[in-house]
Amino acid sequence: EIGMVFNTIIDGDEIEVTVVGINDEEVTVDANHELAGESLHFEVKIVEVRDATAEEIEQAQHDCDDEGCCH
Q: Which residues of the chain fall short of a pLDDT of 70?
């Protein structure tokens, strides 16, 4: 049924998908998060600022490659 939500595994990760189309041969699902495409606004309060530890700096350097950093 269109609009039905269920969990499935894609690339080894369990995710929630929504049925968006059905015909005689196939079912089309949308794997986007329900807030995908929406503008989100947050209010935050910074409660602490500290220098990064040597371990955090080392880890951050390993998370980067020729295409940039992943965070």
A: 63-71
